[in-house]
Amino acid sequence: MNTQGKVFKYPDNVDTDVIIPARYLNTSDAQELSKHCMEDIDSEYVKKVSKGDVMVAGWNFGCGSSREHAPLVIKTCGTGCVIAKSFARIFYRNAINIGLPILECETAAEEINAGDEVSVDFDTGIISDLTTGKTYKAEPFPEFIQNIIKAGGLLKSLKK
Questions:
Q1: Top-level CATH class of 2-151?
Q2: From CA 82, how far away is CA 60, in angstroms rounded?
């Protein structure tokens, strides 16, 4: 499984209220919620993101509340992958449960710049910055977790 796209870069400690502000949680419709993804930190994100684009962030991405809405809106608006120095544990698990590909790679998160074109191979953990020519190695998920993500989330993988 691979993705390729333009990078949107964010700082450390991006919390779930920044990813999807609580004021919009009066609906469970993922399409409606995704219209507000990242709007408090990057009001242009949903207007500029294209299918396969990549979020790159610092430490503790997805901290805050345990809502599954955060990884869900990131995935629903077309983001192909989130690469971060680290993820809050509950976000990490929620991302797997809803089928959002994520990778932890400190060096890639530091060196990749906003606007770079990046390719990610989830099977090997290889992150290629096509703009700079640099490659990075993240630890890929074990096959059973990759299968959950490929199926589109935990519930869909269980149905198979």
A1: alpha beta
A2: 12
